[in-house]
């Protein structure tokens, strides 16, 4: 999946979450890492970056997606 498709999917998930979310104080923050073909990274490096991006999304006001391509 390319980065634009992944971002679109995250946006769609967020919209659907908003529709079914009955607890307005609950938000959906997403960290997204896209790995370019041919780039090899250990899974622990990718998971660490995902965690960092998730917390960036929360710090920037929650209810959003932060992505990075490696």
From TrEMBL:
Sequence ranges assigned to domain GGDEF in this UniProt record: 6-64
InterPro entries recorded: GGDEF_dom, Nucleotide_cyclase, Rev_trsase/Diguanyl_cyclase
Species name: Legionella micdadei (Tatlockia micdadei)
Highest taxon listed in the record's lineage: Bacteria
Record protein name field: Diguanylate cyclase (GGDEF) domain-containing protein
């Amino acid at each position: 999946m390319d980065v634009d498709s992944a971002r679109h999917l995250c946006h769609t998930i967020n919209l659907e979450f908003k529709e079914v979310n009955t607890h307005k104080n609950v938000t959906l923050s997403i960290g997204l890492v896209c790995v370019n073909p041919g780039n090899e990274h250990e899974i622990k490096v990718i998971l660490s970056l995902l965690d960092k991006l998730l917390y960036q999304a929360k710090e920037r006001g929650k209810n959003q997606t932060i992505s990075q391509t490696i």
